[in-house]
Design a protein that fits this description.
- The chain has one helix and six strands.
- The chain is low in regular secondary structure.
- The strands form three sheets. It has a two-stranded antiparallel ribbon with strand order 1-4.
- A hairpin with a 4-residue loop joins strand 2 and strand 3.
- It is flat and about 75 Å long.
- The model is unreliable at 127-131 (pLDDT under 50).
Length: 154
Amino acid sequence: MLPRFPTVDIHDAETGLTFDAGDLVVINYAAANRDARVHTDPDRFDVTRPTRKNHQSFGVGAHYCLGAGLARLEARIALESLFGRYPRLTLATAAEDLRPLASFISNGHQQIPVHIDGAPARPTGPDHLTVQVTPPAAPDRTPPRGHTAETPAA
C-alpha cells in the first residue's frame, strides 16, 4: 500500500470520488495493470497482449524505476536461458492450483512445480560465465605538500 496526501482538493468526475487536501489516500500496488478499461482480461498473464507496453509496473514519469531496463534484461536472459536449456519444461500442476503469495506488494506464487521432460538441450554457450573484477588501486593517502598528519583540514 502506498499512502499519499493530496495538497489540494481533488474531485474525480469519472468515479465521483472527492479527496480533500490532507486526506489519506491509499494506493494499492496490486491494482496496477488491472484496469479492465485498459487491459482485456487483466487478471490473466499474457505477454502478447496488445497493451503490454502500457503497464505501470515500473512507475510513471519522474517516479519511473531507474532499474527497469536492468530488470527487463535480467528477466529476458533468465527466461531465454531456462527455456533454451529445458525446451520441454511444463507446469506440473493445474495453473488454478498454484497458491499465491500472501503479499499486497508483489504478485507471485508460493511455488511453481514443473516437469523437466527429457535431457536438457545442448547448451549453445558456456554453462556459466566467469567475470574477472579487478579492484581499483588504493587511493594515494600521501598528505599534500606542506601538510602533515597533525595539520588540520581546511
